[in-house]
Amino acid sequence: MMEFEKEIDQVINSDQQLSPPIKLVTPNELHRTIMKLSNKKAPGFDLITGEILKHLPRKPVVFLTMLFNAVFRIQYYPKLWKVSQICMTPKDGKPPTDPGSYRPISLLPLLSKVFEKVFLRRLKPILDEEKVIPDHQFGFREEHSTVEQIHRIVEKIRLSLEKKEYCSAAFLDIQQAFDRVWHKGLLFKMKNLVPNSFFMVLKSYLHGRKFQVKIGETTSKLYEIQASVPQGSVLGPVLYSIYTADLPCKDDDVVMATYADDTACLSSNKDPILASQKLQAQLDDIDVWLQKWRIKSSATKSVHVTFTLRKGDCPPVNLGREQLPHKNCVKYLGLRLDRRLTWAEHIKAKKTEANLQYQKLNWLIGRQSPLSLNNKLLVYKCTIKPIWTYGIQLWGSASNSNLEILQRFQNKVLRDISGATWYTRNAEIHEYLGMPTVKEEICSYSSKYQDRLQGHTNKLARDLLMSDPEDTRRLKRWHILSLSDRI
Fold this sequence. Notes:
Layout: H1 2-13, H2 27-35, H3 50-54, H4 58-74, E1 83-90, E2 102-107, H5 110-130, H6 146-162, E3 166-174, H7 183-190, H8 196-206, E4 210-215, E5 218-219, E6 223-224, H9 236-243, E7 254-259, E8 262-269, H10 272-292, E9 297-307, E10 318-319, E11 322-323, E12 326-327, E13 329-332, E14 335-338, H11 344-360, H12 362-365, H13 373-389, H14 392-395, H15 400-418, H16 426-433, H17 438-454, H18 459-462, H19 483-486
Parallel strand pairs: 1-4, 9-12
Antiparallel strand pairs: 1-2, 3-8, 3-9, 4-5, 4-6, 7-8, 10-11, 13-14
Helix pairs in contact: 1-7, 7-9, 11-13, 11-15, 13-15, 15-16
């Protein structure tokens, strides 16, 4: 390991070919960036807010422009912009004497975020041109969402069920992934990925970062940050994607799906032993990579699932020396995937979650509330409806008996919102309120989702619309393109 660190130090400190300077910032560009800032964002230790920057006259904006261009020119990131203030927010119902009862929130100076926005606008075209970020990474990317990543996994499972295969899947838990990014390892990877002018700015950006903890009005002294990408920063997610871009994925038969640090691997075969063997080979490569780049994973918090219509399970798999626990249902990116992909567990969980939210808001949108009908509907659409409509493009292919669970819930809520009598038909309430039914929502969401996939920038997402000529479509209710015909 020491030899590897020496090699990294040599690469980082080695000479690099000259590169064109970074495109300079103009006052107009900086002004447009400032005007897009949110006034609700909490300031850093300097107490400069977005509202303050928006009221700056022309002359200070020109001065900031000169400062940003000086950072590009001399490739030195100001020390004051590297200080993050960690505010400890107490969790509800937790003992205040336990350090684990607090949620740390990192606050950076707002001027540093403005600079990062300007810098990222110049860095992103280089990353896209060189295809640094792999296609299977859907996190922190424009026009990429969790639904599309889950759809890739669902499609792999569905095809396995169609062919009566065993799908052995591992959903990995990476511990404090963003906090464990090794700075030298990140610089080593960026050395040959970005031009020298960008590399030197990023090197200064990562070097010598400090933090202080704030509880109430009390602050600690400054401590140096030895690892991690800056939390709360604009560049942090991009740097993490670069750091994990070389996550091994050698076997084309194994589907790799990553969304930030949420990682899933799936392998299918008619023989459950072969399915787990391919998955185990992939997990072995991942374990070697994690150890090499100093990222820890928790095998006990990871999950191994066998998706199949047949009896029996795939043999267990290990991550390192620890065996992954086997379960019949897993929660990935907010959706619950059960063994036979019936969506029953997911729909029941969402119904329970939505019902709890409705009970909290019953005083506001219930029968006794003096709130107007339009405002009651607005509260329902903004707070309760998004709970159960998330991922509807995928779980909308569930059986009618499962869909009726959510339909009955919506009937009850709309009946209370409108104050309808017991003999009023549910269809009349929906028509009066202008609210679509669950099945109508499925058709609407699915149609828009298909249009979005057709023009998607990622080939892996576009391929989800392509039908397999060898697919018999025996289980049509799992296929998203058959929703409109089925409904």
